[in-house]
Amino acid sequence: MKVLVVGGGGREHAIAWRIAQDPAVRQVYCVPGNAGAMADVSCIPGNIMDAREMLSLAASLGVDLTVIGPEAPLVEGIADTFRSAGHAVVGPSAAGARLEGSKAFAKDFMADNGIPTARSALLEDLADVERTIGRFGYPVVLKADGLAAGKGVVIAEDEKAAGLTAREMLTGQMVGGAGRRIVVEECLRGVEVSFIVLSDGASFCALPVTRDHKRAFNGDLGPNTGGMGAYSDASILSEEMRGRIVEKVVEPTLAGMHRRGTPFEGFLYCGLMLTDDGPKVLEFNVRLGDPETQPLLYRLEGGFAECLAGAARGALDSSLVHASDLSTACVVMAAGGYPGAYPKGKPIRGIREAEQTGAKVFHAGTAFSGGLPVTAGGRVLGVTARGEGLHRALDNAYAATRLVHFDGVHYRTDIGRPGYQDDRAGN
Length: 427
What we know:
By secondary structure, the protein is α+β, with helices and mostly antiparallel strands. The chain is built from 13 helices and 24 strands. The strands form seven sheets. Strands 3-2-1-4-5 form a five-stranded parallel β-sheet, sandwiched between helices. Strands 12-15-20-24-21 form a five-stranded antiparallel β-sheet. A four-stranded antiparallel β-sheet has the order 6-9-7-8, sandwiched between helices. Helix 1 packs parallel to helix 10 (293-299) and helix 5 packs across helix 6.
């Protein structure tokens, strides 16, 4: 089997690397990939937002399967273009991708299908800011309706901060056009988990559960980011809670999409808060998470590529994959200043030494310059390791992280530490 992975971040590097591990796979291509993916698979330049260009590339390479990594091309309908041409693809239709592409749509969909979520209101007009933002008390969560690269969620502690954030979103100052409509949401309390399933439109299989850390600094402080680290461990969810999530969230979501005439095909990411009243949906994503993908796929065993191919054909075989008994953890190494302005082009050293410890360094925002990998994004690397139990996995990940260096590097030192618990709706 020959596979094309579309995207160039840490998630796509992990997907391409994991697919390449399967004996059934002969060749893996990644477009555009990055400095790390080049060491594992064949990387090809290209515009991933041009669906016709991607389809033409897939045809010229003679691939059997294409996996779409990021959300933006999915929202624009790349999977529809591939399916209409009879090409096997993993990713939802544009109609299915609205679950992530519009927070307002997702809220309406959940209300229509009885899926538990936070109380919310839609804010579209500057004149309504004061009347709307205090409806659920403080702190309050403000979410840009559209895609905002993980930066469209703000937890405002008081009326002043909420009003300022709402105005900056509505006027396009904060996240551009993505914030021209805002979902104002009550701030849920509990434990946050990422529950991801792969669906072929009719059936689904659940992947190993993960937890991520969205705030920039230790102690869950600072602004939200795309994610500063994540881990996967058997202790995250009880079997009873797993069953409740499937019954209350996953099955109603897939059934609801089917009733709309838009069966969901691809990865459904359920960002959940486990509250005293049970699981509630914080957000839907329509692709694998980043950085959740890194520890998830580092823990996954079996024929992942064959499972993806089956899902693309409408014949998902969930028996092909299962989770290792080992735990996994990923530490994101970010550029100084992230999630604000940050420098690029800083040489990265120590990756080989880190991987000699048994870790895998997945590249997120990197490029080559002068024969060396250099920083090219806010989140630069995801250092990922295994261990017998979460504590050992974390020790291994941090031991490898300390061997990697670039100017201005920043990373959290409390990923997955005992006592870590989200108590606010972060995304």
